[in-house]
Design goal:
The chain is mostly helical. The protein has a single domain, classed as Biosynthetic peptidoglycan transglycosylase-like (Penicillin binding protein transpeptidase fold, Orthogonal Bundle). The chain is built from 8 helices and no strands.
């Protein structure tokens, strides 16, 4: 029984060391990204874009649809949906590849504002630092507004205004 406890303790310590490594590496990536341009300036630049659409100009059913599809616990978590993240983590382990699918709306805003689309654990940890600042400094509706103005709609359209004009 003692050996089993030691093995479990060893695995736990290794897990903590790995998490610590990726947290430190993610923090360095976050600091590097913020040294280029601050989060506030990134948000300001996005809001100053010609085709920026205010959330008040978007139909309520569209907002509800986005939340329902992308992050149905958006208003109840603090930037990271632990349930969705855990589900994606387990799925990635089972399939042995990074398929994604667990990012909250806030995490996607963080990624699109500050980082590349490269799927790495370091970037995921760096996102967490941006998520913390987004959730601390902005209301949920502000974050949703940033999301609809900085998400990929397909066919080269990265905001709701351009995508809607393409349909019309």
């Amino acid at each position: 029984m003692k050996i089993v406890r030691r093995i479990i303790l060893f695995i736990f310590i290794v897990f903590l060391v790995i998490i610590g490594y990726f947290t430190a590496d993610g923090y360095m990536l976050y600091k590097e990204s913020m040294s280029e341009i601050s989060l506030e300036d990134r948000v300001s630049n996005l809001k100053e874009a010609e085709n920026f659409t205010h959330l008040s100009d978007v139909p309520e059913y569209y907002k509800n649809a986005v939340i329902s599809i992308e992050d149905h616990r958006f208003y109840s978590h603090h930037g990271v949906d632990i349930i969705a993240t855990s589900r994606a983590f387990i799925n990635n382990i089972v399939t042995m590849e990074l398929q994604g699918g667990g990012s909250s709306i806030t995490q996607q805003v963080a990624k699109n504002l500050c980082f590349t689309q490269e799927k790495t654990l370091t970037r995921k940890f760096a996102e967490l630092f941006v998520v913390y600042h987004l959730e601390k400094d902005y209301e949920k509706d502000d974050i949703l507004e940033l999301y609809i103005n900085n998400m990929y709609f397909g066919n080269g359209y990265y905001n709701i205004y351009d995508a809607a004009k393409r349909i019309l």
